[in-house]
Amino acid sequence: MVDVKVERLLVNYKTLEDFKRFQAYGNQELSMLEDLQNEIVENDSKSPFYGIYFGNNLVARMSLYERSAQYDHYFNPPQDYLVLFKLEVLPDYRNRGYGKMLVDYAKSFQLPIKTNPFINSHDFWEKMGFEMASYNLERDLGENPFIWMPKGVKEAVQPPHRTLGNIVEQEDEETK
Amino acid sequence: MVDVKVERLLVNYKTLEDFKRFQAYGNQELSMLEDLQNEIVENDSKSPFYGIYFGNNLVARMSLYERSAQYDHYFNPPQDYLVLFKLEVLPDYRNRGYGKMLVDYAKSFQLPIKTNPFINSHDFWEKMGFEMASYNLERDLGENPFIWMPKGVKEAVQPPHRTLGNIVEQEDEETK
User: Fold this and answer.
1) Does B77 sit behind a cis peptide bond, omega within 30 degrees of 0 on the bond before it?
2) Backbone angles phi, psi at A112, to 5 degrees
3) pTM of the entire structure?
4) What is the least distance, in Å, from the CA of A133 to any CA of chain B?
5) What is the pLDDT of residues A70-82, one digit of tens each?
6) What's the number of CA atoms in the CB half-sphere (13 Å) around residue A167?
7) Which residues make beta-bridge pairs with A84?
C-alpha cells in the first residue's frame, strides 16, 4: 500500500486548481481564489482544508472549522466543537480508506464533531461512529446533521420545539 | 397546459409517502413521520412545505422558513427573511416552469430570501433573479448561499473576516 498521509492544505494556485476536480467546488473556493488574487491572503498560507495527496495529485479533502461553545446547539454541556464539511474522495480513489483517514484525523482533536453529509452517505457516517442528531427544524432546516462525540459528551437536550413557530403563514385563498 | 397551482402541503401519511420520491428526503421528513406516528402533530396540520400536484401526484416541492431579524446576517438593514430549501422537481416534470412557480410563490411574501442551492443549480438561481452572496467562512462554511432581495433591500456589509480565526490548529509534525 502506498504511504499516504493527511496534511493541512496551503492556499496557492495549485491547491485551488486541484479543488476544481471536487464536486463540492463552490463559493468558498471562488472566494479563496479571489483573496489570493487580491493579495488578501498570502500565498501558501494555511487553509481550512486538509487533504491526501497521491503522488502530486490531491485525491481527497475535507474542511474543518472550530465553533466556540457559545454557538453550540448540538452538545451537552455546550462546548467548543468542530464542523466538518466538504469531505470528498475523488471517484478513482474510493474504497481505499482515505475518507476514514480524514475522519480519524478530525477525531484526533478530541472535540465533538458535527457534519451535514451529502445525500446517500449516511451509511458511511454510521460506520465512522457518527449518529444522526435529533432533528430540529429551527436549527437544522434542510440539513441532516450527523454528530460524533468523544467520551463524556452527550447530545444536547432539545427544547420541545415541535410547533410550527416561524413557518410562513399566508392566506391559502390567495393561491387559488 | 394543465392547470396546476402551488399549495401548502399538509402533514399526513400520503404527503410523507410522496416525499420519498424526492432526492433530498432526510432527517426532516423522518422526524415529521415520527411526530405524526407519536401524535405530536395532528394529521393534516400545516407543514413547512409547499408543492405542486399533477393530478394526485406531488411532483415538485420546496420548504420555507421565516427567520427573524435578530438572526439576519445576510441583508441590510437586518430584517425578517425567508430561508428556502429542498426546492426540487421530479425528473419527469422538469422544464415545465414548476420550479419557477415555486420560487415566484416564495417571492410573493415580499421578504428577502436566502437559499443554499444544490451543486450545479447556480444557473437556475441566477435566472430566478438570485445572486451569489459574498462568501463568509464563519457564516457559510460549506454553503453556497444565494440571495434574493425585494426593492430597497441590500446585501449585508460583511465585516472584514478574512482571517483564519477559528480554523483548527494542530502541530503539523503530528501528522508525519
Assistant:
1) yes
2) -65, 155
3) 0.87
4) 9
5) 999 999 999 999 9
6) 19
7) A64, A115
